[in-house]
Amino acid sequence: KVLIDVPPSDLAEELEQSQTQVQALQDTLQQVLDRREEERQSRQLLELYLQALKKEESILSKAAESEAEPREEMDVVDTGTSSTGVLVKTALSDQTLAVLKGKPAPELCLDSQDLELVVKEDTEVLASALSWDKQKAEALQQACDQELSKRLQQVQTLHSLRSISKGKKTLP
Predict the structure, then answer these.
(1) Which segments constitute the DNA fragmentation factor 45kDa middle domain (predicted)?
(2) Which of 42, 84, 116, 123 has the lowest tally of Cβ within 10 angstroms?
């Protein structure tokens, strides 16, 4: 880096070389530094990708475990009526509502489509359907929104990795 920052004329004089040779040397050094930086960034992206894979794997294994458990609690699912007996219209399925009520971190157990439905649902309707207060329903929606954002970021990272990978294959 120091050799790159030195003016070519001074370096040429010091090395007793022509200015064109020194400029070629500085260009080569800059290319090496650029390549090292690209490699460092690629390693970081690969580490993020591997972390995302591990996280996804643990989520899938937890989901598989929860599906293997007996579903006796499904019988006591709120049928979607409020305490006044009026039917609450929600886009969420009974199964999704059961997951929301029965899991400590339901945002990790739902697929992205269900997460979007939860986020888009009116907070009061969601709170009523789950027999929760509005603050708890808002917190759930925020957690679902954050999980959706994380998943989107993971997808974008994967696309970036693929495009970087494709770009590397075309190089000589």
Answers:
(1) 2-119
(2) 84
* CA angle, residues 57, 96, 100, in degrees to nearest 5: 80
- CA 134, CA 141: separation in Å to the nearest integer? 10
State how far the Cα of 60 lies from the Cα of 58, in Å rounded to an integer.
5
Residues 6 or more apart in contact with residue 62 via CB below 8 angstroms = 108, 109
Pick 94-168's CATH classification: 1.25.40.20, 1.10.1490.10, 3.10.450.50, 3.10.450.350: 1.10.1490.10
Can you give the C-alpha Rg of the chain in angstroms? 28
What would the pLDDT profile of 5-41 be if each residue is shown by its tens digit? 889 999 889 889 999 999 999 999 999 999 999 999 9
145: left (phi over 0), alpha (psi -120 to 50) or beta: alpha
What tens digit of pLDDT does each residue of 37-58 get?
999 999 999 898 888 888 888 8
Neighbours of 18 (CB within 10 A): 11
The SS3 call for residue 81 is strand
Would you tell me how many other CB atoms lie within 10 Å of the CB of residue 142?
A: 12
Averaged pLDDT for residues 124-136? 88
